[in-house]
């Protein structure tokens, strides 16, 4: 059920977990909950509301019981979890994590809190490419701590404008205005740095007959200079969900990480909640 953009080779070193310097209890609870997938520790799971947990991972049944059943299906001792980034926007906490979860994967998870408990979860998972991209970046390296907390809303508006203009509507005449020249760090495993790298990748995709289209944006979440956008569309002719994390610097998009996952056929869904 998980997407892939490149072949796997030897794994890079694992990252240390986030320091949560802009810390909240909810962020710490999310990091602990995700780590419990690896450790099997029961206490962190208590943050999930036992009666109101809505699951949007289509490979898991709804509710707390569905979460438990998914963990039970993991081969014993196989899970590894290292959360590299964690941010918060209101009652939503979003994390960027290095997983071994039925195989090596990179994931974004979004959790919604209500009255101190997690009541809803969304995620996107992609098979982990273990070679760096053409510019030598992995899907996880780069800055991890949010800054410019007073600019959160402005940065969300900037990124939302970029996604609407460029990814949804293809207004390519506006592309250069969102970037500081060719200064753009890219973590997509198949694309090199800079607008030049993006252009080359899009040209190669077009020549190969591979189309990528964003149709709808569902959420724009931010903390300081980091903004995560949850979208759906089509990639290579298949319904696909796109999670894109952007780092903003001085009013321009400076860095990008993403996770792309195809939506499974409806008859494979284990819950009826949909991806969003």
From TrEMBL:
Pfam families noted in UniProt: SnoaL_2
Source organism superkingdom: Bacteria
Domain (SnoaL-like): residue spans on this chain: 33-121, 161-256
Span list, region Disordered: 1-25
Gene3D superfamilies with a match to the protein in the record: 3.10.450.50
Family matches, as InterPro entries: Cyclase_SnoaL-like, NTF2-like_dom_sf, SnoaL-like
Record-given protein name: SnoaL-like domain-containing protein
